[in-house]
Each structure stands twice: as C-alpha cells, then as structure tokens.
Amino acid sequence: MEKVPMTREGLAQLEDELRRLRTEERPAVIRAIADAREHGDISENAEYHAARERQSFIEGRLVELEDIISRAQVIDTSGLSGDVVRFGATVLLCDEDTEEESRYTLVGSHEADAANGRLSVTSPLGRALIGKRLGDIVEVTAPRGSRSYEVVQIAYA
Predict the structure, then answer these.
(1) Concatenated DSSP letters of 94-138
(2) How many domains, in total, are found in the chain?
(3) Mean local confidence (pLDDT), 128-147
(4) Which of 24, 91, 119, 155 sits between 20 and 30 A of 62, alpha carbons compared?
(5) Which residues form the Transcription elongation factor GreA/GreB C-terminal domain (predicted)?
(6) 21 — phi, psi (to 5°)?
(7) CA dist 86 to 53, 72, 80, 129, 136, Å?
(8) Is residue 140 a part of any domain in this protein?
(9) Domain boundary among 74, 103, 135
C-alpha cells in the first residue's frame, strides 16, 4: 500500500470534506431521493435521477477520501529548514525568458492547487525542483514547451 505524502493542513482539509459529506451531503441527498419518490413514477422523474447521480458521486468520493486518509503520511514541515528544496518548501522562481517570478509551495498531489501557489511534488516542475539549491537552474518540459527557471529563494514555514 503506497503512502500518500501530505501536509498536516492538507490532511485536515480532506478530513473536513469527509465529515461534511457524511454529515451534511449524504443525508441531504437521501432526503432528496425520498422526496422525488413521493412524486410518483420515478422512471421519468428528473429530480430522482439527478439525486441518484449525486448520491453515486458522494459515495464514490467517500470511498476515495477514506482510502487517501488511510494511506496519508503527514510530513511535518514546521521543523524543516535549509537551502535544499524538499517537500514543504516554498520556492521563489524566476523565469529565465520573461523574468517573471512565481512562488510555489511543494505539497502532496491531493492538496495541490497551482493557481494558489500549491504545487504537487509529482508534477513535472515539482519533481524538477526537488534537491535543487539557491541559484540553481531548473529546466522543465511542460505541455506548453520547455521552460527554465532560476531558484531565487527557498523558505520553510
């Protein structure tokens, strides 16, 4: 069984989603199915079919979350420091072509959100950053072509 690395905050978010699905979403969809059944013929009842579809999604997500949480390996990033990029590092990069700076925190794949600066360690850029030091050049082949970045800053929260 493969462990899933994540931060303490990432695990807390998944546990919150699991709790919400169990205590709020699941009971609500069960009530919606019961209400739709009361309207008679369910074979042509769009509300019933939509509620059943939502129930299927919720049950699938519950199984997925339980699996991820059971395999979670929480990495405490509070004690990390140094000048080498590792899981939990916040890295400031400078694009060598455009001089544009980007800041990313390396996190587990289930808590990644590149738009908000949370980059998965399994992404092409995340993999390329691991082990780099201040001033190193990182070359990444991404869907939009090859890019080069300089590691400008490495910090641990």
Answers:
(1) EETTT--EEEEEEE-GGG-BGGGTEEETTSHHHHHHTT-BTT-EE
(2) 2
(3) 90
(4) 119
(5) 82-156
(6) -65, -40
(7) 41, 18, 9, 8, 14
(8) yes
(9) 74
Structural domain for 114, as ranges: 89-156
- Tokens 């080069």 belong to 148
Residue 77 has pLDDT above 90, yes or no: no
The conformation of residue 142, written as its DSSP 8-state character, comes to E
How far, in whole angstroms, is CA 74 from its chain's centroid?
A: 14
Q: Give the tens place of pLDDT for each residue, 47-70.
A: 889 999 999 999 999 999 999 999
Mean pLDDT of 65-82: 88
Q: Which of 100-112 are b and which e, b meaning 16 or more Cβ less than 10 Å from the residue's Cβ?
A: eeeebbbbbebbb
Q: Which residues share a beta bridge with 151?
A: 93
Q: How far apart are CA 52 and CA 41, in angstroms?
A: 15
